[in-house]
Amino acid sequence: MGLLRLLTTDPLTFALVIIPLLFSIIIHEVAHGWVAYRMGDPTAKRSGRLSLNPIKHLDPVGTLMLLLAGFGWAKPVPVNFNKISDTRKGLIFVSSAGIIANILFALFALLFVRLFFTSSSGIAAILVYKVCLIVVQINITLAALNLIPIPPLDGSKILMGIVWERTPYFLTRLEPYGFFIIIGLLLLGILNPLIGFFRWIIVTLIGILLP
């Protein structure tokens, strides 16, 4: 269900979902830019994209899709891999950064719930508990989606760095059609199982870290 419909039917739930969702997407993009900056590329910093200000990151079409279809995107953080001395490592580390940031966000939300929530907590605490669970679900799903190795998702760039010899050219040629491929996989019912597979990997990892 689109978030716009949720706004009209259940405004409270809309607020509980949209705020963590936007913040999670922004953290994902800032992580890309911050790691690129640490590796020698100041492009994102000079563009003002190392900010948590939503205005710096929101994409009009991506935001509209988020409201209407329940999934969307932010403006990609600009990265110039030519300014990173080791391009291969740059592809792997910069592309992994957003995924790792989302997993850590989910991990910290779960840890917060474990440390501070009890069955005797009041109404305010229960609301915080619900927000934390939403944060966990959103961030695990974002990380899982971006692990799929289809351009322009981060998984494709990680794969470029890992399989350096032949794959990058193929994936680069595929990138202009990536959005349509993702939509096609969604319509064919293949995208959700792919996300589910990577969600299982992430949940297993979190289970090891927080037994």
Number of strands: 0
Average pLDDT, all residues: 86
Helicity range: over 70%
The poorly predicted ranges are none
- Overall shape: it is globular
- In angstroms, what separates the terminal alpha carbons? 33 Å
Largest β sheet strand count, sense and barrel closure: none
Order of helices and strands: HHHHHHHHHH
Tell me the Rg in angstroms.
18 Å
- SS strand fraction: under 5%
Structural class: mainly alpha
How many distinct domains?
1
Number of helices: 10
Description:
71% of the residues lie in helices and 0% in strands. With 211 residues, the chain is an all-alpha fold. It has one domain (3-209). The longest helix is centred in the middle third of the chain and has 30 residues, at 87-116.
